[in-house]
Amino acid sequence: MYLRTSTRIRAHIFICVMALQLHRLMRSRLHQAKIFTSPERVLEKLALNRTVQARINGKKFEGLIPPTPEQLDLFKALGVPTPQHHDLQDSTL
Predict the structure, then answer these.
(1) pTM to 2 decimals?
(2) Per residue of the chain (93 residues), what is the pLDDT tens digit?
(3) Between vectors from CA 46 to CA 40 and to CA 47, what angle results, nearest 5°?
């Protein structure tokens, strides 16, 4: 990556340091919760959370696939709120 202005260089360094701090925070929280998986692997597992779209009777609905028990444990260990999902089969939507 080639950055020519000092402003962009400082911004790039700031982003790198912030990413390092987030990595360390994740690793620390995972170890406190007795989860010995790398932050990279945790992010891969959490990235499997998907939003789905469905069209029912001409209406468009969106919902989040419910997280797995493993994902729920990871959200809890990281201190991150669990994403809320809607059941697309629920007639109250």
Answers:
(1) 0.71
(2) 677 899 999 999 999 999 999 999 999 999 999 999 999 999 999 988 788 888 888 888 888 888 899 999 999 999 999 887 665 555 554
(3) 85
